[in-house]
């Protein structure tokens, strides 16, 4: 069971989009995948076309102190080979995490039931801020996939992740892939920022080919479809990233 966080402390860079496409792509490659949505806006659930009418129990019920739900009861199927663990009340979840003394062990404990469910990959879509939830996620996972928007402010902020990992006494080697997102091949600015990104990580070969900015990617999300169901061009870009991912953390 490979555990991956999709994380970047910057908002709106494509974490939920990347989580959903990688999760569905891995399922299409015949892996058994669970996507855990820990983004407060439920974006990855919505991008998969799932909303509150589709689930009763969520991650919130799983961590209920008095009457914790069974993990099987909080998971729903989203696509063939792809399950989803949605969330509700993210602020309360974060407050609950604050009460925990051993945040580093907390998720392993709460998600213990996953061992029996035989997933090949667990992907966790994280919210942008530094939160107790994200602290716990980083202590739980083995790898980080980091989408970075190819624009100046995002590219300049990439060092933050190193600081974050260092504060948690975790290794930067956890960063398995950096995915340049929303690349616009028509602008020089985009090319310069992509070059900067490659240069920044030049000592480790972890930057993938870029995912281009495409209206169809935004549309797919709004329609609750993945790129594999909506946009061949974006699908082939994500497949390239997937091949890298599978190799890197084999
Ligand atoms: N390559 C792309 N081309 C076009 N639109 C994109 C692309 N990647 C993401 N988007 C769109 O950009 C918006 C932000 O993406 P997304 O929600 O995945 O970011 P996020 O990092 O998860 O944001 P948050 O920090 O709020 O959780 C969404 O509307 C999404 O559809
Ligand atoms: Mg998100």
From TrEMBL:
<feature type="domain" description="AAA">
    <location>
        <begin position="1"/>
        <end position="169"/>
    </location>
</feature>
<protein>
    <submittedName>
        <fullName>ParA family protein</fullName>
    </submittedName>
</protein>
<dbReference type="Pfam" id="PF13614">
    <property type="entry name" value="AAA_31"/>
</dbReference>
<dbReference type="InterPro" id="IPR025669">
    <property type="entry name" value="AAA_dom"/>
</dbReference>
<dbReference type="InterPro" id="IPR027417">
    <property type="entry name" value="P-loop_NTPase"/>
</dbReference>
<dbReference type="InterPro" id="IPR050678">
    <property type="entry name" value="DNA_Partitioning_ATPase"/>
</dbReference>
């Amino acid at each position: 069971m490979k555990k991956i966080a999709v994380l970047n402390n910057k908002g709106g860079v494509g974490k939920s989009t990347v989580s959903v496409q990688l999760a569905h792509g891995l399922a299409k490659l015949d892996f058994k995948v669970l996507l855990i949505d820990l983004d407060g806006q439920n974006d990855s659930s919505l991008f998969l076309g799932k909303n509150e009418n589709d689930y009763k129990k969520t991650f919130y019920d799983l961590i209920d102190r008095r009457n914790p739900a069974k993990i099987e009861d909080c998971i729903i199927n989203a696509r063939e080979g792809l399950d989803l663990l949605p969330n509700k009340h993210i602020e309360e979840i974060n407050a609950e995490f604050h009460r925990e003394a051993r945040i580093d062990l907390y998720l392993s404990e709460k998600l213990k039931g996953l061992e029996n469910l035989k997933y090949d990959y667990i992907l966790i879509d994280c919210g942008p801020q530094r939160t107790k939830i994200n602290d716990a996620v980083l202590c739980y996972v083995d790898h980080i996939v980091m989408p970075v928007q190819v624009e100046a402010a995002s590219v300049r902020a990439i060092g933050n992740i190193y600081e974050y990992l260092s504060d948690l006494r975790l290794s930067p080697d956890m960063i398995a892939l950096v995915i340049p997102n929303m690349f616009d091949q028509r602008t020089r600015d985009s090319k310069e920022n992509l070059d900067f990104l490659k240069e920044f990580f030049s000592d480790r070969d972890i930057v993938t080919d870029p995912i281009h900015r495409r209206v169809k990617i935004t549309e797919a999300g709004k329609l609750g479809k993945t790129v594999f169901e909506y946009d061949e061009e974006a699908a082939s870009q994500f497949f390239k990233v997937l091949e890298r991912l599978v190799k890197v953390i084999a």
